[in-house]
Design brief:
By secondary structure, the chain is of the alpha/beta class. The chain is built from 9 helices and 8 strands. It has an 8-stranded parallel beta sheet with strand order 7-6-5-4-3-2-1-8. The radius of gyration is 17 Å and the shape is globular. The structure holds pyridoxal-5'-phosphate (PLP).
């Protein structure tokens, strides 16, 4: 058994089956990605359009492709064409742009709202206080459907330090779910990465995004 296959099998045996595992495949070759998919991964997350495009086009194993990188207006059309889910909607303007191109292309795009839960100045995502208003504003858009929340969270050295951030996300997720906003259904709470997915799942994540723990170390961190 190859190293990637071994890692996937171990992770999937450890992670509850109610939690979806997204392989974060940035910087990985198509061969590595296919090995992970054959071992049982069903979703790939890509951060960069240029890198993702040939992988998506040439991948021989069927899977879902999620966009997990930062959005730029001029790339949204192609992202809408290529990806099954966009996890990183970080502004109403970007949601409008997705809706516009989804209409042109003729598809209804599942999206998630990215939350900057650590309120980090440099980081993309809605601030906690802005999420609900933005959801209401986007609930009228007909060519996308909001299926959940995603967060990166701050980069921390001790895994336990993640817990309060993940707990805040869970609370927000549940508050939104009971509001019954039109066109918004809280199905996915995407949080937790290689170093933090265990804590994230304990705090309610039902989707985790894992790179290093599947493929080994990368040349760049995020
Ligand atoms: C790279 C990346 C991950 C996975 O990070 P690892 O630490 O390698 O598991 C998860 N989410 C996003 C948005 C990423 O860019």
């Amino acid at each position: 058994m190859g190293r990637i296959e071994e890692n996937v099998k171990r992770l999937l045996s450890e992670i509850p089956s109610t939690v979806k595992v997204v392989a974060a495949t940035k910087s990985r070759t198509l061969e590595e990605v296919e090995e992970a998919l054959k071992a049982g991964i069903g979703i790939c997350g890509e951060n960069y359009l240029q890198e993702a495009e040939p992988k998506i086009r040439n991948c021989s194993v069927k899977c879902e492709w999620h966009y997990i990188g930062s959005l730029q207006k001029r790339k949204i059309r192609r992202i809408v064409e290529l990806f099954d889910v966009i996890q990183t909607v970080d502004s109403v303007a970007h949601a409008l742009e997705i809706d516009k191109w989804a209409m042109v292309i003729g598809k209804k795009v599942p999206v998630m709202f990215e939350v900057n839960i650590g309120e980090e100045p440099q980081k993309a995502g809605f601030l906690l206080k802005d999420v609900k208003r933005a959801l209401f504003e986007c609930s009228k858009l007909r060519n996308l459907v909001i299926v959940g929340l995603m967060t990166m969270g701050p980069l921390l050295s001790d895994v336990e330090e993640y817990r309060p951030y993940f707990a805040k996300m869970r609370k927000l997720y549940e508050e939104i779910a009971i509001e019954k906003i039109e066109n918004v259904s809280m199905r996915y709470l995407s949080m937790g990465m290689s170093d933090s997915f265990r804590v994230a799942i304990e705090e309610g994540a039902n989707m985790v995004r894992i790179g290093t723990a599947i493929f080994g170390p990368r040349n760049y961190k995020r």
